[in-house]
Amino acid sequence: MVSPRSLSAGVAALSLAVALASSGHAADITKAKLYPDKKGTVADFQPMSKFCGTKPIKVALSDGWGGNYWRHITRAEFEDEASKCKNITETRYTDGEFKPEKQIADIQGLIAQKFDVIVAFLDGGPAILKATREATAAGVAVVPYDTGDNFPGTVGKDYVDRVTESQSQVGEQFADWLGKTLNGKGNVIMYGGTPGNPMTAAQVVGWKPTFAKYPGIKIHDARMIRLMQVLLHAGTTVGGWRAQQLHEVLLTSFGLSDKFYGLNQLRYDLRKMRAHALLERDGNRYAYRLTDKGVKVALLFVLFHQRLYGPLANNLFHHRPDANFQPDSKLEKAVHQADDSIRKVIQLLDTV
User: Fold this and answer.
1) How many distinct structural domains can be found in the chain?
2) Band of pLDDT at residue 340, cut at 50, 70 and 90
3) Is the Cβ–Cβ distance between 255 and 125 less than 8 Å?
4) Packing angle of the helix pair 4-22, 69-82 (nearest 10 deg)
């Protein structure tokens, strides 16, 4: 089975090679030899020395979020490959901190500092294309990587090219391998990357129909965890959330499609939470907020989920609570108390 994690570091390096081959030609895309439909395997990768050239250039990796081990490895691979070209005078890394406005500002800063090449992982998806289009128009060779199969944007306008595995095929291989390994029966939780990223969205297209061939396998997609995260992030929303508002935020935050998680599914989940006294309505309005019990239960599930699964958790709570920053908020205090208790439980488990 092909793993996206084992291939993606190489894909980032390949993006640099494509960008170097295009550098200096981005303003006139007709001069660059691009093959947007070319497909191949790892065996087709070429040494970086073939693409270095002689012109002194500055290269950068614009990351949408750099907070897990795979991103660290990808950055290291990028910097290692860049070091093989003596004509590269500067290598820069920027971390968008999973804030689209931050990555946009990062890219605009690289344009202003006259970088020649920008390789990018666009966690914000189409929202970042305005910045990549601006860079391309300025003559910068921009190459997004691991975009998935049907990433929006136009070659030659929004970027010079893009490099990706077939993420839908990766998802298909995941599902088929699990189906055979589990002999067609079992419970499976499918996790993705950061919320909204194009890689996960493309993989779902592959694994969902493949798992349908194994009716004995039950897919748990952690949708209740997602719902609890959004409800907690809202804090004490005045008047509560209407189902339609919640649905829109869930789809946007986690890069889901309406077909994958429909409004009726959300309403069913809300009814289940109300039945367990985790949610309450705002008077006679169809608007919902967590009860005191709901806050406690949601914190327990969400924080355990994040602490045990780490970067795989696809969690909106990216960082642990900071003990030095505690606003005078009942919810904030509860988060600190719950996180501290979970830390002690995990420490106890480590000693068993």
Assistant:
1) 3
2) low
3) yes
4) 40
